Each structure stands twice: as structure tokens, then as C-alpha cells.
Amino acid sequence: MENKKYSLTEVKSKANDFLNNKKDVNETTFLNYRTSFNYFIYYLTNISKEEYLGTDNKEMIIEGFQGSLFKGFKYKIEDNERTVKAKANGVNTHVRRIKTFLNKSLGLKVDSDSVKDLKVTKPKYKSLSKEEIELLIKECSNKWKNEEIAVRTSTLIRFLFNTAFRIEEALGILTSNIYEDGSNYYVKIQEKGKAKGELTEVTISENTFNLINDYINLKKVPSDYVFSSTKPSAELEGKSKKYNRENFNKAIRDLASYVDLKYKGTKINDKPVNISKTVANNSSHVFRHSKATYLLNVKKEDVVTVKEILRHNSIDSTLIYLNPEEEAINKVRISNDI
């Protein structure tokens, strides 16, 4: 078997070529791969003792990279230093991307028996009830005195729950991507995993269609994006930029804390108001998770139908939201004898 060897300089060059190809296909995929590559190149340059990457040491290097990500390492760029540490699922994702790169760009296939994925315990997603989400929406106008910010937050929360879209899918929607055709209403989204510009048409309700149009008409600064900054951008000739995901994550964390404090000592569905923890654990995906849980556990919708609404590739991804209550399990257990 040919013994291939690549210097660190060659690996960096090949990595840049690989990333440039990803950028042309899908921006989100490119950004995700770029993060993994930044960590891997940093590991090769500053942590690994190997002077090259090749056939004879590829498994050892990947295993070392995997361990460093899981245990945590100091990641320093110029004067900025922080600790990079990932949970098992995140480590597996980073390593999987690097394995793909090694195989496709360097012809180095990593033996899966030698470097196995870290064991991941599938999480039981904690979701917000419909009533808790309605409370968040209601309190937006009290949390923010700036009407545009309050309405943007409440509209985006409602939109994410109504559609069960991923946050990046929602933030990438252009105003021209929402339209009606007779009595039907549609939105086109850049779906996760699809090539850049390959949009997916999704049916939405008339209520959601009107919600978005009302919000667009309220905005004072024009934008090509439905959800956008409240400030004009010079580089966009006065139009506002796409709303930033991290800014939204911060906004809903702040909102959840505000609501918890305001309603401390009260209950929703016989449970104390404690929204912050759920929001912090799930970030902006909490509304997608909550819609899935609501459809499956409250509305009792068919799991296959919910899979299609969420656009999951595998039904296993949908099943993690199905959490039947003990009382319901016992009822089925004792009432279906022959």
C-alpha cells in the first residue's frame, strides 16, 4: 500500500481548497466545516507532536484530536485565548468532518474500527408548553420598549413554533420567498443540507402568512430579509442585514429570565414557571423542539406525519420527541388484553 505523507503546510492548503468548494455549495455547511478545520489545524500545529500527516499516523492523529476536543484545550488566535471543549456528540461531528476531508482530499481513509465515535446518550429534549411560549410572546412588549425589537422577537418566536423551522432556515428567508397562490400560502427556505440556492417550498397557514406580512409592513428600515436588523447598513445602501442567530439566542435567554422573575411563585399547567433552563439548554431550537413535542404528545399526531413536518431524514430523529406519560403507558398496558 502506498505510504502517503503530507506536510502541515500541504494539509492547510488542501483544507482551504476543500472549504472553498463547500462555500460554493452551502454557506451553513461551509461555516460548520470551517470551525472543525480551524480546530484541527490548530491541533496539528500546536498540540500534536507529529510533523506530517500520512498513512502510518492518521489514526493516531485523529484519536488525539478526538481526545483533545473532549477533554478541552486552550485555543489561542493572536491575543485571544479560550478553551475549546465539546460534548461527545459535538466531538463526533467535528471528527466526522475531518475524516471526510482526509478521505476525499488526501486519500487517507481512517479506519473506523481504530477510531470509533464517542458514545452518545440520546438526550430527552425538554420543551416548552404552548402556554409557556404564549407567555413569552405576550411579555415581549413589556421586556422591550423599542416596538420594532419587541415585535421582531415575538414574531420570530411565533413563526418558529408555527412552522417548526430550524433557526437558520427562518433567518435566511427573503421577503420575496413568501407568497400566496389562490387560497394557498407558501414560503421557500434554504433547507439544511441542500445546495446553496436550491430552495424548498413549504406550505404555511394563512395566519402565519399574515403574521409575516404585518411584521414586514411594520419595519422602518427596508431589507431583503424578513427577519433583519433594525439598523441600516452602509454596505447594503441603507438596507438592513439579516438578523443574527446569536443575537436572537441572547434575546430569548434574556426574555426567559425576565418572565421567570416576573412570574416567580406562579404556575402554568400546575408547574412552577421555570422557562430559563429549558431555553438555555435548547437555545433557539427550543421552539422547533416544542412544536414536535406538542404535535406528538398533546395533539397525538402520527409520528410519520410529524417526521415530514420536521423534514427529518430518519424517523429515529423524530422519535426522541415522543415522551408518553406514565399514566398513558399504564392505561394501554392494562386495557388491551384478549
Structure description:
There is one protein chain. The protein has 338 residues and is mainly alpha-helical. It folds into two domains: 102 residues, no CATH class; 200 residues, hpI Integrase, Chain A. 54% of the residues lie in helices and 10% in strands. The protein has 14 helices and nine strands. The strands form four sheets. Strands 5-6-7 form a three-stranded antiparallel beta sheet. Strands 1-2 form a two-stranded antiparallel ribbon. The mean pLDDT is 90.
Largest sheet, spatial ordering of strands: 5-6-7
Q: What is the terminal-to-terminal distance?
A: 64 Å
Helical content stands at 40-55%
Number of domains: 2
Radius of gyration: 23 Å
In terms of per-residue confidence, which ranges show pLDDT below 50 for 5 or more consecutive residues?
none
Q: Tell me, briefly, the overall form.
A: globular
CATH topology of the largest domain: hpI Integrase, Chain A
Q: Give me the number of helical elements.
A: 14
Q: Structural class given helices, strands, pairing?
A: mainly alpha
Number of strands: 9
Keywords:
338 residues; mainly alpha; 3-stranded antiparallel β-sheet; 54% helix; 2 domains
Short description:
It is built from 14 helices and nine strands. Helix 3 (58-71) runs antiparallel to helix 4. It has helices at 8-25, 27-47, 58-71, 88-106, 130-143, 147-163, 167-171, 206-218, 245-262, 275-282, 286-298, 303-310, 315-319, 326-334; strands spanning 5-7, 52-54, 73-77, 80-84, 178-181, 184-189, 200-204, 267-268, 271-272.
